Amino acid sequence: MNRPNFINTPHGNRIAYHRTPGTSPGVVFLGGFMSDMEGGKALALEARCAAAGRAFVRFDYAGHGLSGGAFADGTIGLWLKHALAVIDQLTQGPQILVGSSMGGWIALLAAKARRARVRGLVGIAAAPDFTVRHWAELSVADQQTINRDGKLEVYSDYGPDPYVFTRALFEDGWRNRVNHGPIHLDIPVRLIQGLEDADVPWQTATAIAENLTGNDTEVILVPGGDHRLSEPGDLKRLVRVVDNLVKDIS
Predict the structure, then answer these.
(1) Which position among 101, 134, 199, 234 bears the catalytic label?
(2) Which residue of 27, 98, 137, 173 has the smallest Cβ count within 10 Å?
């Protein structure tokens, strides 16, 4: 594994990244909750962009992967600031944001914040407002634990480390809701969603599409597709979708 480079954000965080030089529109990959930039989707896009001579950036939010900071200190708003710092400091010209799971939420927020730069968006099991849904699904006892202790640790099938859900994460997530009404973006958006996703209901993708105000949105439903969408066929589909989006906006 190649050693990453780092940027220091205005928010006091040291962010690890890998950047591939090339032509625009460039591609920026935004990972998911407790994921990192070494996943199959990020690496597949990096390889494709390098082969096509297209600019590409992947990075870790603070508290993720090789970046500094503690995961439990993170919120959607803070991780959004890291994404914007990456766009501002490491890219030039028009960009396509590719967001996986939570990264899809942050990509939507970043596209709204950088309208002049973001020209297209791809969501992979995009999970906007997932903290709102997750809070509603928690038991009363778990909600009380978060309110009393400020956090809740939950183990999952995705690794040995527990997911840490903090009160600050839920409160900040509510302030950064994006899929509760019109999403004012007039850019091409492609939403890839597995029908067997156990973490993000497939109806989330159709809700995003209904809320987007632009007229160039496509929902790609994958029969049998899970939340990761990282099987060889999934990666080929992702690369194809991004390639076609580059052609559309070029």
Answers:
(1) 101
(2) 137
Give the model's pLDDT for residue 155.
80
35 is catalytic: no
The CATH homologous superfamily for domain 5-128+184-249 is: Alpha/Beta hydrolase fold, catalytic domain (3.40.50.1820)
Q: What is the pLDDT of residue 159?
A: 67
- Reply yes or no on whether 82 is catalytic: no
Residue spans of the chain under pLDDT 70: 1, 158-159
What confidence tens digit (pLDDT) does each residue in 9-40 have? 987 889 999 999 999 999 999 999 999 999 99
Tell me, yes or no, if 227 is annotated catalytic: yes
Instruction: Return the structure tokens found at 2.
Output: 């190649």
Domain definitions of the chain by residue range: 5-128+184-249
Amino acid sitting at position 135? W
